[in-house]
Amino acid sequence: MSEKKTFVTLEQLKEIDKTYPTPYHLYDEKGIRDNAKRLKEAFAWNKGYREYFAVKATPNPYILNILKEYGCGVDCASETELMMAYALDYKPGEIMFSSNDTPAEEYAYANEIGATINLDDITHIEFLDKILDGKFPETMSCRYNPGGYFQLGTSIMDNPGDAKYGMTHDQIIEAFKILKSKGVKHFGIHSFLASNTVSNEYYPTLAKSLFELAVELRDKTGADIKFINLSGGVGVAYKPDQTPNDIAVIGAGVHKVYDEILTAAGMGDVAIYTELGRFMLAPYGCVVTKAIHEKHIYKEYIGVDACAVNLMRPAIYGAYHHITVAGKENEPCDHKYDVTGSLCENSDKFAIDRMLPKIDMGDYLIIHDTGAHGYSMGYQYNGKLRSAELLLKEDGSVQMIRRAETPKDYFATFDFCDKLDKLNLN
Ligand SMILES: *Cc1c(COP(=O)(O)O)cnc(C)c1O
Predict the structure, then answer these.
(1) Atom 14 in ligand 1: which residue has the minimum CA distance?
(2) Interval between CA 345 and ligand 1 midpoint (Å)
(3) What is the pLDDT of residue 421?
(4) Which of 252, 259, 353, 374 supports an S-S bond with 263, CB 3.0-4.6 Å?
(5) How confident is the model at residue 419 (pLDDT cuts 50, 70, 90)?
(6) In this protein, which residues make up the domain named Orn/DAP/Arg decarboxylase 2 C-terminal (predicted)?
(7) Residue among 74, 76, 231 whose CB has most ligand 1 atoms within 8 A, to mutate
(8) Ligand 1 binding site (Cβ under 6 Å of any ligand atom)
(9) CB 48 within 8 A of CB 365
(10) Could you check whether the bond before residue 23 is cis, i.e. omega within 30 degrees of 0?
(11) What's residue 424's pLDDT?
(12) Cα-flanking dihedrals φ and ψ of residue 4, to 5°?
């Protein structure tokens, strides 16, 4: 059970308000650093270990630079993410390209900057062959999908058989053989079987199946397996009644199966990679928004100045995000509200039938755990603009790490339309 604490106080929010209007995304530098350190320690037993932060979760150079201090590389899913990695001086070996349905030019660019390509499908070998003119990189990775259901004990965690990613068991064996014949020397195996798992068992269970597959692949294809990439999926406790994952326990669990399977098979030099996004950032970011309207019809509504463009997860997945009314942490939650944004979409609700303290106009609402897959999923529906991203630094100061969009940004792709001149945007 986790107590949902905020990393910012009402006093701090009032201070921030003097410079940066709500809504905004706020990140907690100390929280990010402490967590990155814990992850590093949890896998310190593995010599080649590296976390490749899933850029899509929080694609902000300031955040990436913090994580880089802990040895994190980046996992990119698209050309622009690769461009960001290149601009930030990530070196070959520090960039993973785990894409799917990949356009040819993205593969070409990934290869050009020395990213490790993680192939999503066996047919991509031919596709890549044409792009690279037969000159494959020395190291390649393949993504595995075991099909069926992924279970931990008796509970079904997810449904890989219904997921578009990865190769089947027989395909990955065949893929290794073909890649070897094309000159690839070193191999990696990647798999992502369940998202947002709140269980210390996910990684060890996944690792076990990948380690067994690695031994089989070595035996059947003679491939030199350099790394096993456990990918993302380690989740966070969004809800107050959930117990957060303990990364030290997870690291030890992976260590145990590593020794049992890989070390025992003479493969004790295989590196473990991870591509965590949510686990690295979600709890260390929040959306700060102000109550601007209250409405009493068939239900009680609180309208805030953020909407689904700032945080899409509740609208698209019905995802739970805890809400704290700043300064009212100790007041009874005796009011039932729907907390809404302003989009012309009834799904634009941050909370439905949520018990909260009595909310007054002007109150700051802190929406928790938005540090990953929050800002980055944002969009501009209804002509709403994306907010600023702010970093609460360890010394208590606040740094703007991305400015808010302006109407000029929104209209920028219409530059050919001279009618817009009369708006005098600057
Ligand atoms: C989204 C994604 C991740 C990160 O997932 P989290 O759930 O945020 O940890 C890692 N690898 C790949 C290939 C992904 O698509």
Answers:
(1) 232
(2) 28
(3) 82
(4) 259
(5) confident
(6) 283-371
(7) 231
(8) 54, 56-57, 75, 98, 192, 195-196, 231-233, 275-279, 372
(9) no
(10) yes
(11) 83
(12) -85, 90
